[in-house]
Amino acid sequence: MNARSPIRIFDSGIGGLTVANAVSRHLPQEEIIYIGDTAHFPYGDKSVEAIQQYALRLSEVLLQKHCKMILIACNTASAAAFPLLQQELKDRGVLLVNVIDPVVDSVCSEPAMKKVGIIATKGTISSGVYEQKIKAKNPKLEVASLATQLLAPMIESGFYNNSVSQAIINSYLTYPDFQDIDGMILACTHYPLVRREIDYFFKGRIRIFDSTDVTARYVAGLLERHHLLRSGETPHHHFYVTDLTESFAQTARLFYPGALTLEYLPVWETEPS
Fold this sequence. Notes:
10 strands, alpha/beta, Rossmann fold, 11 helices
């Protein structure tokens, strides 16, 4: 592991490109290699065991490419597989980061925060990981959670920032337990694309937290502490998906506004048992 080694990022699909884009903006000298497991998207309705097998396989592929850090840019995979990957990778000389801990740290650092809402996939919500981590840091902070299953497929299809998406978002956010919240965690890497619509619903009265910039700052701090910040020439990024279609290629540009070309990576020629 050295400073010139790349940061490897994986997600259940292309939503994690919102995190990759934030890392690129905050750390423009860092090389990124991204894998979106589009063959198994979405992870939100998969079993914990299946997600763990996917995460293990993707991590092994990333390690074969020699990296200094693996960033799990998926809330569902972070919830289901992060502890397992910590154990599996503890002697492999690579930093491991998820997108949950940076957000929890950010929320719990707000002294005025009394109650926070969470919207995410069914898998992330059912894990209870956000509530557990928040309560461990601030037992007095009240948490209200809601699975919002329609949002990720809606966003992936390009339906956002219009009257249809606003109506769907409004129907979720009228959840009674959200009426007195001080903040909202967008606990899915797709959701930053509808942050404006969520803020519009709440008329700007609450703090909204997502995993983009806060994770990028966390990554920067971790690399600096380990003396692994890269410098030098402009990096060359690679973006891979495990199932390549024209729709994925088009949608990817919504999540990562910079120039990118998706490449097919045949990770699942032999499926995990």
